[in-house]
Specification:
Helix content: over 70%
Structural class: mainly alpha
Number of helices: 4
Shape: rod-shaped
Number of domains: 2
Distance between the termini: 96 Å
Strand content: under 5%
Amino acid sequence: MAATEPRTEAEIRAAIREERQQLAESVEELRSDLGEATNLGAKLGRNLVLVAGVALAAGFVLGGGVGATVRYFLRRSRETS
């Protein structure tokens, strides 16, 4: 194992400063990415037609629309027979 010379106080301080700077840059990048990832309004705006369609379909199903539609068509077919 090769012997390494001890670092001076100035070298250690410079290394700590560099690490702090890199950490600060990483934190700022993470904040920026997190802000973009949680911007729900922009995501919904880009897919507004799809979101509206899904909401309409979910409301129809949850409101009993499927059952009511099936009953309507079954009743109608019995009346015409």
